[in-house]
């Protein structure tokens, strides 16, 4: 690999998303296409909760390593987006409103008792990656948010159109993300463009984004195997 310009690096990152982002996964197509049963949608929401609930822990570990007040303030905003500020609910609470709306018992969701092993392994790997890798790699791994507005648009419009058990209130989690994600991307992408100044660092950045895309894909692989085909949920997992 040769050294890329900042624009060339950004283009390479976007190519990774075009190829690997889970908007292309068969389970996503089934979800927004109205091809899943309510029980299968419940399984998706229950497992996705662990990812949502782990994002603040991931971000807190990154904040602790940032060297300046300016950088820490920027990343603390993400914690508030997900944890709320004590008055306004954050993303974790809004996701629980989603699982409530789908008829899942909140205590059961929060207990994680029905979680798929594949979900747990993938999410834990992400938290560990951000905690242990360089700041540049940790920040680069968040850049899947470059591609999230498109998947959110597909998911919300498709689910509202195709499922009579879903309402706009149920999916209220996604509305703030349409503005929060681009704001997050603007900072993270600027940081990566500025600091990935060697071939080695650029390779690390690209690998970090591939890793993040892979773990998002792996979560849908686990859901598809357990609840679609062949439909074999492991012992202890949620059973509709």
TrEMBL record:
Coiled coil: none annotated. The keyword RNA-binding does not apply. It catalyses: 6-(2-amino-2-carboxyethyl)-7,8-dioxo-1,2,3,4,7,8-hexahydroquinoline-2,4-dicarboxylate + 3 O2 = pyrroloquinoline quinone + 2 H2O2 + 2 H2O + H(+). Its EC number is 1.3.3.11. The keyword Oxidoreductase applies. It is an enzyme of class 1 (oxidoreductase). Gene3D superfamilies: Heme oxygenase-like. Keywords: Oxidoreductase, PQQ biosynthesis. InterPro entries: Haem_Oase-like_multi-hlx, PqqC, PqqC-like, Thiaminase-2/PQQC. Pathway: Cofactor biosynthesis; pyrroloquinoline quinone biosynthesis. Residues 11-221 form the Thiaminase-2/PQQC domain. Ring cyclization and eight-electron oxidation of 3a-(2-amino-2-carboxyethyl)-4,5-dioxo-4,5,6,7,8,9-hexahydroquinoline-7,9-dicarboxylic-acid to PQQ. Belongs to the PqqC family. This is Pyrroloquinoline-quinone synthase. It comes from Neoroseomonas terrae.
